[in-house]
Design a protein that fits this description.
alpha+beta; 8-stranded mixed sheet; 6-stranded mixed sheet; 6 helices
């Protein structure tokens, strides 16, 4: 692992370019030849994923632009095939399939619960939407966040994409997570203001949460939180997780009660405990 739980620092990523072209070699590559071939590969790779602590949750396919457009065209009727794909880039002719294990889904679900506990406490529950697994597109590319949030009514001429996106990593490297961050914060792709990443260690009770924001046309990592457990004692570093009000609601606060959201140490521990239970750690 590149960092230890004691490290807390800033980091910047360039935006623009392909977010799928430079994925790590640990992600298997295939050429897409049809639905039957894809489903056979998906079945065999999913079996390998369940029996391995190192196999990737992702599969990268090379496919023609017409094939990609056909898969995601709602007018073609059955969209079950499209649900297997997490991301696409028609310019690079790439499709990314995702095979999620239980801890992955548990992490997204409990992060949403933690967010809404704060929303409701602040009286914001009715003006913020949460979106599980919704696809957003921009400039010949598209992506599905593990979870995303945004105002029910944003600025009239504002973007339609979520203001905050969450990406959960259970097997992928930081290279893959950073590509997710670049997609969500790239104004040509999504125009989200904040990207949260949650990385789960598969072999020990250790979770890392990062908050990324767009600053000076770059993705800027502004917060890192580590959640670890030793024996029966859990520890959360650098809490609370702070979500800027203006970044979430896409407007400035208008009264003293409208302030930055803070997800507490206790809420973060609940998220971690649910994940570790799913991992049987």
């Amino acid at each position: 692992m590149a960092e230890t739980p004691r490290e807390q620092g800033n980091c910047d990523l360039d935006l623009g370019g392909s977010f799928l072209k430079d994925l790590p070699p640990s992600i298997p590559r295939y050429t897409y030849t049809g639905e039957s071939q894809f489903l056979d590969i998906l079945q065999s790779e999913y079996a390998r994923l369940r029996s391995s602590n190192t196999a990737s949750e992702f599969l990268l396919f090379h496919a023609s632009k017409d094939t990609i457009k056909s898969i995601f065209n709602p007018q073609n009727g059955d969209t079950s095939l499209a649900r297997n794909f997490n991301s696409f880039d028609t310019t690079e002719q790439l499709l990314l399939a995702k095979m999620s294990l239980d801890p992955h889904g548990v992490a997204a679900h409990f992060m949403n619960i933690a967010m809404y506990n704060v929303f409701n406490t602040m009286g914001l529950g009715n003006i913020i939407h949460g979106h599980p697994g919704v696809k957003f597109e921009g400039n010949d590319r598209g992506k599905v966040a593990d979870y995303s949030w945004g105002p029910v009514r944003g600025p009239r001429d504002g973007p339609r994409s979520p203001s905050v996106a969450l990406e959960v990593a259970y097997s992928e490297t930081d290279v893959k997570l950073n590509s997710d961050v670049r997609f969500w914060l790239d104004p040509d792709s999504s125009q989200a203001n904040i990207c949260l990443t949650l990385r789960i260690n598969r072999s020990r009770p250790e979770i890392r949460i990062e908050k990324w924001e767009r600053r000076n046309n770059r993705a800027h990592r502004s917060q890192i939180i580590w959640i670890t457990r030793k024996g029966d004692q859990s520890n959360v570093s650098h809490h609370p997780l702070v979500i800027p009000f203006e970044g979430l609601l896409r407007r400035q606060s208008s009264c003293p009660g409208e302030k930055d959201l803070e997800i507490s140490q206790g809420e973060l521990k609940k998220v971690a405990e649910a994940i570790w239970k799913a991992q049987e750690l």
